[in-house]
Amino acid sequence: MSRPVRILLTVCFAALVVGATASPATAQYAQQPAGYGYPPPPPPARVYRQGLTFGLGIGLGAFTADNCGDACGVGLAFEGHIGGMLTPQFALMFDAFPVVHTVNSDTTTTNTAYTVAGQIFLNDLVWLKGGLGIAHFTESSNAFGDATDTGTAVLFGGGVEVYQSGPFAIDLQLRIEHSFYSTAKDMNEGAFLVGFNWY
Predict the structure, then answer these.
(1) Are the C-beta atoms of residues 196 and 172 closer than 8 Å to each other?
(2) Which uninterrupted H or E stretch holds 11?
(3) Contacts 24+ apart (CB under 8 A), 70-75
(4) Torsion of CA 84, 89, 94, 95, to 10 degrees
(5) Model pTM greater than 0.90?
């Protein structure tokens, strides 16, 4: 075999070896347009809502009524709820919402709404709530004891979750409630609260 033929065969063999080793990489890059990689994974959910849900909140509130005088006014507001997520966007729960007003060193008045409430999440952050149940008013005096009245409560509320992590969220919420009483004056109650929620 002449030398030129041996050189030609050697070059062809080297070309085949290089082509064989380069073809997988070439095929890999040929599957996608130049400049594009695989799509990124979807972002993780900020909060998971399922099963049992419960929470509590604290803030500032007030209740008013016609000719209520000092028995009505500004006070500490609280809320507590427990229930279940029927879907990832809707929960059915028991909700308690009291506002406690100090009249003087001897007397405190409290207006509380106990409702069965539905809470719907309009998106990942914003929710609305509505409830119907029992209203209870108490005027507590160290000197004269307690005076109470019970009626019907209608609750509306809304909020936005400002922090979310797994099954836990912190929200800012606004609530309004109307109490229908037979003896005491009908009352309007409202509050702004910071809520702590578990799903």
Answers:
(1) no
(2) helix 3-30
(3) 70/103, 70/104, 71/101, 71/103, 71/109, 71/139, 72/101, 72/109, 72/187, 73/101, 73/103, 74/101, 75/99, 75/100, 75/101, 75/102
(4) 140
(5) no
Residue with tokens 């308690």, as numbered in its chain: 96
Collapse the DSSP code of 26 into the 3-class scheme (helix H, G, I; strand E, B; otherwise coil) and give the result.
helix
* CA nearest neighbour of 118 among 92, 151, 156: 92
In 3D space, the residue among 89, 94, 97 whose CA is nearest the CA of residue 126 turns out to be: 89
Instruction: Provide the CA 36 distance to its chain's centre, in angstroms.
Output: 37
33-71 burial code (b ≥16 CB/10 A, e <16): eeeeeeeeeeeeeebebeeebebbbebebbbebeeeeeb
CA count, 13 A, side-chain hemisphere, 140: 10
Local confidence band at 177 (pLDDT 50, 70, 90 cut-offs): very high
> CA 17, CA 29: separation in Å to the nearest integer?
20
